[in-house]
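Collaborator request, handled under Task 6.
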Amino acid sequence: MYRQGLEKIMIDGNLPRDLMLFGENFFIDYYYEKIKNYYNADEVEVIYSFEYQFQTARSTLSGGSLFGDKTLLVLKSENKIPNSDLKELRKLISKTDNFLLYLFYGDGREVQKAFGDNFARFFKPDYNESFQFIFEESQKADVILNPEEIQKIYYLKSGDLSQIYGELQKISNLGIENVREIGIENVVSKSGEIEGDKIANHFFKTGDWKKSIQLLEEFEIDQIEFLSILQRNLHDIYLFRSSLELQKSLDSLSVLGRKLPPEIENQKIVFAKKFSLQKIAQMLYLTAKEDLRLKSGKSGDKTLEIGKMLYLIRNTKI
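Structure tokens returned to the collaborator:
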């Protein structure tokens, strides 16, 4: 089925308990959130392709609960999970009250066979479809946009619905109902640097890559911009670590050539003491490699790629 068909069965209350989504990345993520709310499971377990193991997925769905809790298992993947695995997981769904959602960020025309008719395929929207989507979502967010403003936000964000949708949510949260009075170009943000620093620091501190990409999605930060922020932080930490090993002053003015606020300076020193030069160099290499991949346009879902990179950083030993 396509977008319209999926919308209809959700409105009618006929959404199956196992479903595959593939095609246009933004709509996969958009409908994932809607379907997650529709299922209203007590627990949501997300497994990414690079950590996928059949037994883990199987035990997630087959494990019963004394309290009758329902679990939603979400498989996020760019690589094909064996059809035999998917069919087996679907069989488990038919025997329990749990849910299975397979988000496939690739060509899913072969994979969809494992789900029978339980799939939704999305296509990249043209300008008119995007315009209508922005209009409808702005209405839901209580943000007043006229046709000219919709056109402006579309071109300011280069037609990227993921960024546009995030901007609408931010405008709504700020309580700006009439954008016309301020000017859309003055409302649409151009940087997520503060939030990006928070995510980078969270990852350096905890190594929790899943939480980091969850925050990346929540803050609606551009993935390439986040990589740039991550690399900048790593470069600073590398210089602090070098000064530490050379037993030089750890004052940020001496190390970086610019004075940082005390709390930020102390944080970078903590990370410099935590990571070896070899580990920092490895992280810089992996982020540079991912930056080239994303800018080449050859990657699939960018957030999934960032997650894979963070997973490798955490789990690769030096």
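The cover message to the collaborator said: "Residues 223-245 form the longest helix (23 residues). The longest strand covers residues 71-77. Please let us know whether this matches your experimental observations."
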